[in-house]
């Protein structure tokens, strides 16, 4: 198990990316979410590997990028905080009602992170949509629930982030990393 690799997961619009940015500002190694980068690239190239078009191809692209990011992170020292992990791809497919290819299930089981996973819960007060985040509030809540279930099923322990400002959330994560 890669003990210094920590995942931040949850539904869309729950403050994960803002928290990752704050942790990076504080000096932590962070890995950005692959899904948003793929969406931007696909929108710019008129591609269809998008969560509202070809979901299976979108999932495959996320897996490919996440495996590459995981491998690249092996060269970093100290804690590395990932904005979503490989199990999120598995959860995404389940959320969409798509079959989970055996290689994705195997990757989620074999590519391990620290057993303690941070979950940004759905938070109505900060949830927003944008051109890359088209999910409704109910979809965001469902995504959070699926990610919780997915990580638990893979043997991880969920640590729910408090619903508070970014600085306090970052302080909370820092304290948890010191435990």
TrEMBL record:
Pfam families: AAA_28. Residues 6-169 form the NadR/Ttd14 AAA domain. It comes from Rhodovulum visakhapatnamense. This is Putative ATPase. The lineage of its organism: Bacteria, Pseudomonadati, Pseudomonadota, Alphaproteobacteria, Rhodobacterales. It comes from the Bacteria. InterPro entries: NadR/Ttd14_AAA_dom, P-loop_NTPase.
């Amino acid at each position: 198990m890669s003990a210094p690799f920590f995942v931040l997961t949850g539904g869309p619009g729950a403050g994960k990316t803002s928290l990752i940015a704050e942790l990076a500002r504080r000096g932590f190694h962070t890995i950005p979410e692959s899904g948003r980068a793929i969406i931007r690239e696909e929108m710019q190239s008129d591609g269809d590997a998008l969560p509202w078009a070809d979901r299976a191809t979108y999932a495959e692209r996320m897996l490919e990028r996440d495996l590459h990011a995981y491998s690249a992170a092996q060269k970093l020292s100290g804690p590395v905080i990932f904005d979503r992990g490989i199990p999120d791809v598995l959860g995404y497919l389940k959320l969409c009602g798509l079959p989970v290819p055996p290689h994705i299930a195997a990757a989620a089981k074999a590519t391990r992170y620290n057993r303690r996973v941070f979950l940004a819960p759905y938070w109505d007060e900060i949830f927003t949509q944008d051109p890359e985040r088209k999910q409704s509030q109910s979809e965001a809540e469902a995504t959070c629930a699926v990610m919780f279930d997915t990580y638990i099923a893979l043997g991880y322990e969920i640590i729910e982030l408090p619903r508070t400002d970014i600085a306090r959330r970052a302080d909370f994560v820092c304290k948890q990393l010191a435990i």
